[in-house]
Write a structure and sequence with these properties.
Dihydrodipicolinate Reductase, domain 2, six-stranded parallel beta sheet, alpha/beta, Rossmann fold
Amino acid sequence: MDDEPVSIVMVGISGYGYYYLKNLLEDFNKEEVRIPGVADPYADKSPLYNEIAQRGIRVYLTLEEFYNEGGQADLVVISSPIHYHVEQTCIALSHGSNVLCEKPMGTVVQDMEKVYKIREESGRWVMIGYQWSYSEAIQALKKDIMSGLFGKPKRLKSLCFWPREKAYYKRNSWAGKIADGEGRWILDSPPGNAMAHFVHNMFYLIGTERDRSIQPVEVIAECYRVYPIENFDTGVFRAFTAEGTEILFYGSHVTENEKNPVFQIEFEEAVITFDDRDKEIIARDRKGREKKYGSPDDDNQFLKLYKAIRTVKNHTTPVCGPEAASSQILCVNGIQESVKQITDIPPALTQSDKHRQRRWIAGIDNLLLDCYGNNVLPHEKEVSWSRPGRNIDLRNYNWFPGGNE
């Protein structure tokens, strides 16, 4: 082990980056961690700006500026807007730093090749901030799945209701956008950003190696919009793997009620659930026997940060890197290709809470719960406003938009 403190640069110190930096400042001493700088063009808007100044931590407008002035870091933690993740990851790697990048790793499949190439050339590593992937519960479950304890996976499904107010889409310049003014792909949506964790989790759990996810080979989606945004605020999809495993997802920001993520995995020999009733992952086999794993939320959500620091110190490799994170990107690209024209929900079919400035589709909570329970998509229930997308072949898909077209 290296006894020197790990030098860490934070990229993005407002929003979620605030919590990363708060952990670094409060939970580590100077013998463990050194912060030679933070990079954020709007650093003065961070609640921690005064503390940064008091500690004498240098503030840079960009990560390039830090390196151009001779800076070096063992680890760069990236918590910037999602359409800068790949660019900043590549900059950090090319200057000899390891990277902990917040989810998602990127927005389009073609960018992943850049990350792989520069990572290999640099000899450094990249971790992606899917906190469930570092939890004891998910790691223990994945180990049992890989061992064949439950047989082959037949179907995975996940559901999440996180209603958002109008202000959610006005909190920055890119929320709900498909691309920015300079042509950078953003693809901000429930499965593309806020709920990316739970899309990734399904692919990750049945990946055949500890640091890999299974890849989807086809996907069909439905995408709906209530708020006046570019992209969608409700998205559902059905994907398949090359082995024929079905993967279903139901996510919305325009439900009446909140429902934190749940999932179910059907295997040949068991069913695994994580739901509101048990509040932990439980595997039940055909004979009624149970194995409990705890909850993926039992661990500190910043366990990923502690793991990254430990990985630097111990010279080990991450369990959730770009390869593991790539399935979510591939799937989201397929979703956007599946639905070329997002369906706008007519105001007559929505309800609102004026006090909270929030809107939702009338009856959507029960609809999506029913779809989840019966393994169907809304158009298969002949819902009047539903519109199915087209089926997208993701085999050899290496360019968005258009795949190989």
